[in-house]
Specification:
Layout lengths: L1 E4 L10 E4 L1 H16 L5 H12 L1
Antiparallel strand pairs: 1-2
The protein binds zinc ion.
Length: 54
């Protein structure tokens, strides 16, 4: 289980995604694209989330 918090990316936002890494990458990526207009690559998100949760 891993967790990604939108505020860790510098957004004033309470969104948190938690679960399996692949699901979090997908859900969080969709959130940032939709809500913040920023599309991160799955590779970038995976690295960031792994670093945060290690
Ligand atoms: Zn957000």
């Amino acid at each position: 289980m891993v967790k990604a918090e939108c505020k860790d990316y510098g957004y004033d936002c309470d969104f948190i995604s938690e679960g399996e890494i692949d699901d979090v990458v997908k859900e969080f990526g969709e959130h940032t694209a939709k809500e913040h207009g920023i599309e991160y690559s799955a590779e970038t998100l995976t690295k960031f989330i792994v670093n945060k949760n290690s």
